[in-house]
Amino acid sequence: MPHQRYLVPQTELAVRWNRCRELLRQQAPEAGGLLVFSRVNIYYLSGTLANGVFWLPLEGDPVLFCRRGVERAELESAVPTKLAFTSYGQLEGLAREAGSDLSGVMAAETGGLTWQLGDLLRRKLAGVELVPGDAVLGLARSYKSEWELEILRRCGALHHECLYTLLPPLLRPGMSERDVAHRAWEVFFSKGHMGQMRMGAFGEEIFLGHVSIGDSGDYSSAFNGPVGVRGEHPAIPSMGSAERIWGEGEPLVCDIGFSLEGYCTDKTQVYWSGPVASIPESVRSAHSFCMDVQAMLVESMVPGAIPSELYARCLEMAQKAGMSEGFMGRGHNQVAFVGHGIGLTIDGWPVIARGFDRPLETGMVLALEPKQSVPGIGMVGVENTFEVTPGGARCMTGDQYEILPVS
């Protein structure tokens, strides 16, 4: 049997089901229920990382259909009805037998299926109309329950301890990015990092995160983030390069996540090879600007705040400070956001960006990552994970944001 404290309680699952139903009535009122396919969203709604389909009707009990591992689902999931299947063509009959009929119009998690499987599903469920249900899941997961927040708070505290206290004594100039990444893994695993993080966006992958020395911070990147990275290899463009060595008078950026009990926090710590006095004014002012942006967001991120308006204020601050050119990446690396929701995946809702006009709510969790590229030196800045509270955002990943000197 799995450890009981790791199991998602049935009461917690019921809250999530009701939240999705409420959002379904708002986002897709014609649908009689929600079909979910991606493993991370199935975990969110069932408590087990099942290979299959989750059916959540507007009325009645949900059903977890397992293509494989129904016995494991019985051990881990508090969903009352768990059924084995081998073909999408069986879903209608099995749901009917379970007393939770599929509806004529269903919202489907389109991001959880490939085009190939989506076409197959439509053929197997002939006569059923499928409408997009991804917004329902994104919005539901953006609100964290106290059960989820407790995990994230522990995750964030461990994250800060590792990057601020445990890792610095293991660092020294002359190490490669890869050496630094391996030291980070050592301290992370020593504190319970579970070794795997997830991305929600199609095609995005993550492994530890980005470890970038100097000009690596501006290295061309296909990852949707402001920090560049040389990475391990063209086939594995993440973590850090064995060939880039940390020299005197260079920044080292560790933009890396921590994973605990399925949930992630995100944090960036910048280190400097040399004493504090050796940090150039251009680096100091750029990093200070990023801390100012973070401080503005922390004060402003209260229930009712509009993410798109917060983003506009960040751009205004960058323009007034003369930082627009390198803010949130240089050249083609520049990204059009300053923060993102986080939880079961690194990239979640809401996003501090244009077009995100739904107000923030208490219990939302976001990673704020104002970064600034300094010409000829590389990337500096901060990233921390915050929960939205009535008094402003509360940091989960520590309260120390300065560049740490290492010599």
UniProtKB/TrEMBL annotation:
Q: Which keywords belong to this entry? A: Aminopeptidase, Hydrolase, Protease
Q: What is this protein called?
A: Xaa-Pro aminopeptidase
Report the source organism: Paucidesulfovibrio gracilis DSM 16080
Q: Which InterPro entries match?
A: Creatin/AminoP/Spt16_N, Creatinase/aminopeptidase-like, Creatinase_N, Pept_M24, Peptidase_M24B
Record's keyword annotation contains Ribosomal protein = no
Which Pfam families does the record match to this protein?
Creatinase_N, Peptidase_M24
Identify the residues that the record assigns to the Peptidase M24 domain, covering every copy.
Answer: 151-389
Creatinase N-terminal domain spans which residues?
16-139
